[in-house]
Amino acid sequence: xxxxxxxxxxxxxxLAYLGRRxxxxxxxxxxxxxxxxxxxxxxxxxxxxxxxxxxQESGVELTVVPTYRNTLEFCSSYLWAPAFRTxxxxxxxxxxxxxxxxxxxxxxxxLNRLLPGLPKVYTAHDPVLHLGERNWFLRRVQKQSIQQxxxxxxxxxxxxxxxxxxxxxxxxxxxxxxxxxxxxxEVGTGSGGEHRGARLLFFGRIHEYKGVGVLxxxxxxxxxxxxxxxxxxxxxxxxxxxxxxLAKLEDVEVRNYWIEDEQVAALFANADLLVLPYLDASxxxxxxxxxxxxxxxxxxxxxxxxxxxxxxxxxLLVPPNNSGALAEAVLSLLQDPPLRAKLGQAGGEKAQRExxxxxxxxxxxxxxxxxxxxxxxxxDR
Length: 381
Description:
Mean pLDDT: 89
CATH topology of the largest domain: Rossmann fold
Strand order of the largest sheet: 3-2-1-4-5-6-7
Structural class: alpha/beta
């Protein structure tokens, strides 16, 4: 594949991912892998990243830096100004043309202020922070990261007006969807087991905005009409508010802990349906995982989910916070295996056709090229 040049030579991108785990770690790694065939890429990666070994095996040029492992280490690292100056000098020594941040991180605003001579591209996965996550510090980090960027990438068209309200002009906003997540299928252990053909899966962190209470109310209705239905809830977070509901339900398997990457495949291979009862949403990294396993999705129409789930083709959409509509949609698919299989297959085809990392990287690179070009023009005026 031909390397893309920026007009003065091959574009050199510093991809800075300073997180530790989860879908963001995979998202960043997949983009870096695809970008390295199109331009020069150096990845700035946390020493504490749980997938550091995969970064080291990726063929991407790496610069590894210590970050933190817990809240105490974060506080000390965030307040230690000399460490940021050292990191800024290290970045300047790499001589990139541009910094690309594929995920939010608390260090971004502080680091950016020390690197005024470099253009920045930032992917805002959650332009609006979710219900239960709206603390002042995260709002500040998000707002500053967006406003410091020369271009902002969002994953859903629905949030273009949100970016504009934050002061980002439309011509500096790029909409690039979430990439496919076949990674979990490739690294997974375990396979589909025997079950009764009516297993629902809720997967991901437990947060208020995820609508777990709505799901449990819907499952009560589903169970009344389909006694062999089963529900798996897999993810870390506080399930305390739903304790009374859970105590009254049967055939609910709860895995209330962090799910390691290698364990994800077995969950989806054993699922008949993925359910996203979200009260609000930007988009979901869980939907691409489901599609890679040909699992159809029932989701609410919140945020950008309607851009990922094609109603009647790759899954079904229902209004948020409506347990009756959610139960009806789930039952319609559980009781129609051929339709369920058809929707699952269409989801897999959509991910391969529209969300390949090669396509995503091509569009991210174009955004970076525009940012670098605009920055040079403004600097040279």
